[in-house]
From TrEMBL:
Protein name in UniProt: Flavin-containing monooxygenase
One Pfam short name: FMO-like
Species lineage: Eukaryota, Metazoa, Chordata, Craniata, Vertebrata
Gene name of the encoded protein: LOC117368080
Entry's Gene Ontology molecular function annotations: flavin adenine dinucleotide binding; N,N-dimethylaniline monooxygenase activity; NAD(P)H oxidase H2O2-forming activity; NADP binding
The reaction(s) this protein catalyses: N,N-dimethylaniline + NADPH + O2 + H(+) = N,N-dimethylaniline N-oxide + NADP(+) + H2O; hexan-3-one + NADPH + O2 + H(+) = propyl propanoate + NADP(+) + H2O; hexan-3-one + NADPH + O2 + H(+) = ethyl butanoate + NADP(+) + H2O; octan-3-one + NADPH + O2 + H(+) = ethyl hexanoate + NADP(+) + H2O
Length: 535
């Protein structure tokens, strides 16, 4: 009998969940609490309960070739870093192309999902949903939890004595939409993650003064990297991963930090953290240094306490006449439809095997999708998780014993602790390529570079020296895509296409720009002389 799978949420993770169920011959029903697809990427003027909420200007910090689904490249004319409306457009194209909408029940919220009495034998779930006040119950063989983890704000008011007396406006970044209402005001943004960086920069265009309060500083990365290629395209390469493995970590850190400091000195800009660059989830902000150098944004340490109108910082300095405090302090995972016996989140941590499966259940029929924070895009990672999970549900792949899974969880947690600075925001952190390879190996979709080197050296070269794009995981195994090779070999064209909008119709090596002949001869003679002198 075809297994019925409940998919919770129709954001990017939920869409690929439906597609993967269909690919494996499972029967998906996706419940989406709101009236449309896209999850976080659908901008609305007012935040909706139970769905993430973004500001109008959000632009991705992962690029289109790295964030797309592995068998559906973003259109070649789409910008590399898509504004939110384009991201949504891409998801709509994906849903339409694979005809996914008919499996989604909109305005239907999953209220509870409980193990059925015979769960130990069947692995089945009783799922209760609510649509316009009416509750319904249904039985499912498995659940893919795709409800997102950027919905419930982390508002650490208890860590800020005096905030209750503060007379100005105070809110979480989730509730921020536009900068206009902050014209002429003095604002403190708490937190220097990507929300803090984005909000401070945007608000500073109209505000009188913006301060960022950060308890540990951050290395600031730029979307535009070497030769104008997107940062993640430049960073996520297999040969770099190999080099990193053999390079002492301190050397790797110094090399990357030097690059960041070559753009602007982080110490002189008040941003330098005590930790090394690799130890924190990256903050990408193209404009922050520009706003700091123009004095519109000033960096301050953590706030020790607030008064009715002022903030006193840990270094003893004070800023008075503060109008607004924005908490850009991140989010907490939250699964209100599960009892603690299924999913108990503690310190923003849910113990999951390979960040997907709770190890303690008698049957592995629930999988958490997208509950990760990669050094890269979430979408293709969530897609691979879906590919793996659906095969587990179908019985084509098996999980190890509970003890083995728990041991793996402990090992990974120790590694994570050693690598990243201790912060709740790092509990979901994974390395993009390493994690993708790990999942792909589970379903035999990890590309074999050595065999490709013999059979298809051109492709092998691009896999090794080019960006690790999601199509690499469609070259073999279940779900093999016959266009994967061609898509990989043309990826650079698709990256360049949207920026190269003014084509040169003249020869760049014209006589005025090239070196005169006599100078070339002199240069050649100098080189020959230098060679002889050095012998
Ligand atoms: P979501 O997009 O949050 O979708 C979850 C869906 O589940 C929603 O539609 C919600 O309505 C629905 N839902 C929830 N609970 C229920 C329920 N009980 N019943 C029914 N439906 C339910 N990631 C990147 O990879 N690149 C980026 O550049 C990037 N930028 C970001 C910018 C911001 C400001 C933020 C906050 C996050 C960003 N992220 C980025 C991370 C982001 O979470 C992912 O891009 C992506 O949205 C995750 O998709 P998802 O489907 O897992 O979750
Ligand atoms: P985040 O990454 O969790 O960052 C939270 C920030 O708040 C960190 O600087 C953290 O400091 C600080 N903080 C948390 N609790 C604090 C406390 N009690 N006291 C002082 N400081 C505290 O959250 P986010 O910036 O909202 O980002 C969430 C996700 O959305 C990330 O995946 C991010 O990449 C993504 N995002 C992307 C974009 C984009 O693409 N343009 C924009 C915004 C967000 P510590 O480091 O010290 O913990």
């Amino acid at each position: 009998m075809t297994k019925r799978v409940c998919v919770i949420g129709a954001g990017s993770s939920g869409l690929s969940a439906i597609k993967c169920c269909l690919d494996e011959g499972l029967e998906p029903t996706c419940f989406e609490g709101t009236d449309d697809i896209g999850g976080l990427w659908r901008f609305k003027e007012t935040p909706e309960d139970g769905r993430a909420s973004i500001y109008r200007s959000v632009i991705m910090n992962t690029s289109k070739e790295m964030m797309c689904f592995s068998d559906f490249p973003s259109p070649e004319d789409f910008p590399n870093y898509m504004p939110n409306a384009k991201v949504l457009e891409y998801f709509r194209m994906y849903a339409e192309h694979f005809n996914l909408a008919k499996y989604i029940r909109f305005k239907t919220t999953v209220c509870s999902a409980k193990k059925r009495p015979d769960f130990a034998i069947t692995g089945q779930w009783d799922v209760i949903t609510e649509m316009e006040g009416k509750q319904e119950s249904a039985i499912f063989d498995a659940i893919l939890v795709c409800s997102g983890h950027h919905t419930s704000p982390n508002l650490p008011l208890g860590s800020f004595p005096g905030i209750e007396k503060f007379k100005g406006q105070c809110f979480h970044s989730r509730d921020y939409k536009d900068p206009f209402e902050f014209k002429g005001k003095r604002i403190i943004v708490i937190g220097l993650g990507n929300s803090g960086g984005d909000l401070a920069v945007e608000i500073s265009l109209v505000a009188k003064q913006v301060f960022i309060s950060t308890r540990r500083g951050a290395w600031i990365l730029n979307r535009v990297s070497e030769n104008g290629f997107p940062l993640d395209v430049v960073m996520s390469k297999r040969y770099k991963k190999l080099m990193k493995r053999f390079m002492p970590m301190s050397m790797f850190n110094s090399r990357e930090e030097n690059k960041m400091n070559a753009r602007f000195n982080h110490e002189n800009y008040g941003l330098k953290p005590r930790h090394r660059i690799i130890s924190q989830h990256p903050t990408v902000s193209d404009d922050l240094p520009n706003r700091i150098i123009s004095g519109k944004v000033l960096i301050r340490p953590n706030v020790k306490r607030f008064t009715e109108t002022a903030a006193i910082f840990e270094d003893g300095t004070m800023e008075e006449n503060i109008d607004v405090v924005v908490f850009a302090t991140g989010y907490c995972c939250h699964f209100p439809f599960f009892e603690d016996s299924i999913a108990k989140v503690e310190d923003n941590r849910l113990p999951l095997y390979k960040h997907v499966f709770p190890p303690h259940l008698e049957k592995n029929t629930v999988a958490f999708i997208g509950l990760i924070q990669p050094l890269g895009a979430i979408m293709p990672v969530a897609e691979l998780q879906n590919r793996w999970a659906t095969r587990i549900f179908k019985g084509l792949n098996k999980l190890p014993s509970e003890d083995v899974m728990n041991a793996d969880i402990t090992l990974k947690r120790e590694k994570q602790k050693k690598f990243y600075v201790e912060s709740p925001r790092h509990t979901l952190q994974v390395d993009f390529m390493e994690y993708m390879d790990d999942l792909a190996a589970e379903i035999d979709a990890k590309p074999n570079l050595l065999s490709l080197l013999v059979k298809d050296p051109k492709l092998a070269k691009e896999l090794f020296f080019g960006p690790c794009t999601p199509y690499q995981y469609r070259l073999k195994g279940p779900g093999k895509w016959d266009k994967a090779r061609e898509t990989i070999l043309t990826q650079r064209d698709r990256i360049i296409k949207p920026t190269k909008t003014r084509l040169l119709n003249y020869d760049m090596t014209d006589s005025s720009s090239s070196m005169p002949l006599y100078l070339k001869v002199v240069a050649l003679l100098l080189v020959i002389a230098a060679v002889f002198l050095s012998l």
